[in-house]
Design goal:
Number of domains of chain A: 1
Radius of gyration of chain A: 18 Å
Number of domains of chain B: 1
Strand order of the largest sheet of chain B: 2-1-6-5-4-3
Distance between the termini of chain B: 44 Å
Strand order of the largest sheet of chain A: 6-5-4-3-2-1-14
Largest sheet of chain A: 7 strands, mixed
CATH architecture of chain B: 2-Layer Sandwich
Distance between the termini of chain A: 6 Å
CATH superfamily of chain A: Ribonuclease Z/Hydroxyacylglutathione hydrolase-like
CATH class of chain A: Alpha Beta
Structural class of chain A: alpha/beta
Number of strands of chain A: 14
Strand content of chain A: 25-35%
Shape of chain A: globular
Number of helices of chain A: 6
Structural class of chain B: alpha+beta
Bound molecules: zinc ion
Oligomer: heterodimer
CATH topology of chain B: Beta-Lactamase
Helix content of chain B: 25-40%
Number of strands of chain B: 6
Largest sheet of chain B: 6 strands, antiparallel
């Protein structure tokens, strides 16, 4: 069995406060653990701090897969305790840009004035791997990466095991500029990553109304996330990357209304910090 | 058929919103898409032709020099963009699927992606008016 745990599902900016505790205020971080204990950590938003604390000292090797380097997916990195453990080996995957290596791009955050410790001073053994790359394997996981429609170099991950497929595309605007969304799947960003997934964790930041003022910002209206899930024939959609202005009530209402209007054939569960999905 | 890379998806999405005729091919030169303004110059609708191998579209849309002599495919800006992986520009005539020759100017550029993945080429063209 593979277990997927949400450690942070807030988009753009952490959202502390009572009205956000239901879904949680930490930014993107998802843990995937295979039956044999192999662990993947998807993104290093503020949610990674708690995960690092839980694991610290118990694990020697970490696999951290970043979709992109926007702050909400990176900000927890400096607070991920295994980075400061000299016995830890951290393998980190993430996208380079067309002109800068992954190392240079990461160092822009992990260096003063944004952060007091530089990357080269981290005590852990850190190995960087650039994506998108050919299909690669980590323990029982077969991992496929592809660039997707967001702002700047951004990948999504398709994580396959013998029994299940998980697609993780937290920041994604596949409807941008399309004429016939989502029907022409050959021309649909993210399609092959999400096709027939058992679990699709996907951007659903905006309401339809909000999206009209945020076209091109790289995020999806929630009904587009549903349409994308449907054409990809997924079994279970996890609307993710909740807007930092959306309270628990707003998120619940958005998901309920969209479920009501679209009547999806797949299961829908809004991402919630602490939620565990077993596949 | 498989899903296209994001760079081509975005190129097609952009081109379908522009008034400038645009023609997109893969690394082999096979046609992937042309937009509505290009349909006017090529004399047929993309929906009718769809994707086409290079051998097919190069006979449907015949390039000629300004004297009406055939131009070798290697000399076309799009083919230069693909083979030399740099932008190229030229003025010539094209005989559309409707049999009409139109004088056009073409600028083509390659679509190369990070890690040196090469994805194809884009030609932007416009009709020369002698009015
Ligand atoms: Zn984000
Ligand atoms: Zn982002």
């Amino acid at each position: 069995m593979t277990e997927v745990t949400i450690w942070g599902c807030r988009g753009s900016l952490a959202a502390p406060g009572e009205e956000f505790t239901g879904y949680g205020g930490n930014t993107s971080c998802v843990e995937v653990v295979a039956a044999d204990g192999t662990r993947l950590i998807l993104d290093a938003g503020t949610g990674i701090r708690g995960l690092g604390q839980m694991l610290n000292g118990t694990v020697r090797q970490y696999n951290l897969l970043l979709t992109h380097l926007h702050m909400d997916h990176l900000q927890g990195m400096g607070f991920f305790s295994p980075f400061f453990d000299s016995h830890a080996q951290v393998d980190l995957w993430g996208p380079a840009s067309t002109t800068l290596s992954l190392r240079t791009r990461l160092a822009r955050y992990l260096s003063p004035p944004l952060f007091p410790v530089t990357m080269r001073d981290l005590p852990c053994k850190l190995t960087l791997h650039e994506v998108p790359a050919a299909v690669f394997e980590i323990g029982p996981f077969r991992i496929i990466t592809d660039l997707v429609g967001h702002v700047g170099p951004t990948v999504g991950y398709r994580i396959e095991t013998a029994g299940s497929v998980i697609a993780y595309i937290p920041d994604h605007e596949p409807a941008l500029g399309t004429v016939d969304f989502p029907n022409d799947t050959q021309w649909l960003s993210g399609y092959e990553l999400a096709e027939n997934a058992d679990l699709l964790i996907h951007d659903a930041q905006f309401s339809r109304q909000e999206y009209q003022n945020c076209i091109g910002w790289g995020h999806s209206a929630i009904d587009d996330a549903f349409k994308f899930a449907e054409i990809c024939n997924v079994k279970h959609l996890i609307p993710f990357h909740h807007d930092p202005n959306h309270t628990d009530d707003t998120i619940t209402q958005m998901v309920n209304e969209t479920t009501h209007s679209q009547v999806p054939e797949f299961e829908v569960t809004a991402a919630r910090e602490g939620a565990v999905f077993k596949l | 058929m498989s899903q296209k890379p994001i760079e081509l998806i975005l190129a097609r999405q952009l081109s379908s919103h522009l008034t400038m005729p645009i023609f997109i091919v893969d690394p082999r030169g096979d046609l992937l898409f042309y937009n509505e303004p290009a349909e006017k110059i090529l004399g047929c609708r993309f929906n009718e032709t769809g994707e086409m191998p290079a051998e097919e579209w190069s006979t449907m849309f015949t390039p000629e020099d300004l004297q009406g002599e055939a131009i070798s495919p290697d000399a076309l800006p799009l083919m230069i963009a693909l083979s030399k992986r740099r932008p190229a520009h030229k003025r010539f005539q094209i005989k559309g699927a409707d049999g009409i020759s139109r004088e056009i100017e073409v600028t083509a550029f390659p679509i190369s992606e990070q890690a040196d993945r090469f994805l194809g080429g884009v030609a932007i063209f416009w009709e020369i008016s002698h009015d």
